[in-house]
Prior knowledge:
Elements: H1 10-13, E1 24-25, E2 32-36, H2 37-42, E3 56-63, H3 77-85, E4 90-99, H4 103-110, E5 118-122, E6 125-127, E7 144-148, H5 165-168, E8 173-177, H6 186-191, E9 197-199, H7 207-213, E10 224-226, H8 235-242, E11 250-252, E12 275-277, E13 296-298, E14 308-310, E15 316-318, E16 329-332, E17 338-340, H9 351-354, E18 362-364, E19 370-371, H10 375-386, E20 400-402, H11 428-444
Bound molecules: 2-acetamido-2-deoxy-beta-D-glucopyranose (4 copies).
Amino acid sequence: MCRMETLVFFFLLCLKNPVQTSGCNLEPSPNHCVCSLRDLQQSERQTFLTCLAATTYELRGGDLSHLGALSNIEPEPQLIDILESLTVRKLIFTDVVVPEALLPGALAFVSYAPLVSALEFVNCTFLRAAQGPASAILGVKVSSLRFHKVTAEPLDDRFDLSPWRSWLGDLENLTISESQVTSIPCKMGAAFTALHLLDVSGNHFQDLSLSSSFCERAFPRLQVLKLSHNHLTSYETVCKSLSHLHRLIHLDLSQNNFLLEVSSFPCTWPESLLIFNLSATGLQYTGRSLPPNVQVLDLSANSILTLSLSNPGLKGLYLSNNRLQAVPSVKGLPRLEVLSLDQNQISRLPSEALQPLTHLRSLKAGLNPYNCSCRQYIKEIQALATQRSLLPDWPHDYICKSPPALENYLLDEVPLSSLQCNKGLVSHGSVVSLLTCLHLLLCWLPT
Ligand SMILES: *[C@@H]1O[C@H](CO)[C@@H](O)[C@H](O)[C@H]1NC(C)=O
Ligand SMILES: *[C@@H]1O[C@H](CO)[C@@H](O)[C@H](O)[C@H]1NC(C)=O
Ligand SMILES: *[C@@H]1O[C@H](CO)[C@@H](O)[C@H](O)[C@H]1NC(C)=O
Ligand SMILES: *[C@@H]1O[C@H](CO)[C@@H](O)[C@H](O)[C@H]1NC(C)=O
């Protein structure tokens, strides 16, 4: 059978005669076997034994268009025994031209290898099949399917779903990223009855195509949806299109550009939503409706100047790379555990501003233009770093911006003894209150 050049499955087929095979090596990890199709075609086959224990097989580079006719490969009984004993879990095809007609046969073949649960196509070109598979695709255990940078003709109504329905209905994870997809036909979405995770990052989804792709019946069990880096512009339209996904837990809308909308209508996000990513979406203010039970909110890389949130359940708030001039009000966030404020315009971390956060365990606040004019300003940051061990980016990212004499000093290396407030603001009274404040802080902090 090796002689038949059924290259897609050469590694499976040729196991029957392991010493005869070729062009494969265990890179980049001992569990990951990479075989080059081109080498295989040219060179004499060398040993394949090195790859026997790998759990990931990757097949690279080649044109399988002449294999379209081999869509009904029935393995011999001997071969089935071998397939059933394989340890491979993931198959990856990289830089390959694949006729769609080959897929049903390929899947049938793979279904004999009991542990294969993930299939990936990276930078592959799919050639359109004249017709769909003759019979239903049954018994496929692949539950995770990934297409990255692939080219195919649009999956419009040409696609007859019925032979695929059984498998699609069992699929748990589907990724179609950076593949210029503009929409998913509603009836196709409806076939993914068990899908947990859908990642369509880096495509061309727009507000309108989103509502048709996520029609009422589509993806009824979806928990994770990644729509990062598409062409979405209306926050409210997106919300409306997705509001019926009552099991959605994690929504990634990062790297879209939500325009400022003058008149916006209210919309309610699913109550199930806990992780919400609005990183790099052009947001300037956050007066918009947020998921009511959100626990992790990523607002990094926007243009936010001020912020006032009230979300009693919020545990993680990411505000890196915005335009905040001061620590935002955190009174409405009693459960916050992780806060990032790095790369803003914050000049101080006053201890009283952070005091309400009794559950805080990590505060990233480096790369801000810190004011080192007063000893107190430095002390309060040091206290966070040393006593509460809160600052993961301390000390290397904490640099003085002012006064000019201390510019570019690490906060940790400023000679405190020589320091006093340059405006003489620290009068007797404020020194006393400062000491009282520090004293209270120290007593109150757990040691
Ligand atoms: C994608 O695959 C084609 C062959 O199918 C190859 O010529 C090209 O270099 C690959 N591109 C990348 C970025 O790997
Ligand atoms: C699906 O994706 C999730 C998250 O990436 C992962 O934890 C899970 O193992 C995947 N499931 C399958 C069947 O591959
Ligand atoms: C949000 O998305 C950005 C980029 O798209 C990513 O770097 C970041 O890790 C995500 N945040 C969370 C909390 O997952
Ligand atoms: C730094 O703090 C001092 C003392 O409060 C103040 O006089 C000064 O204006 C601040 N510098 C900047 C750049 O904010």
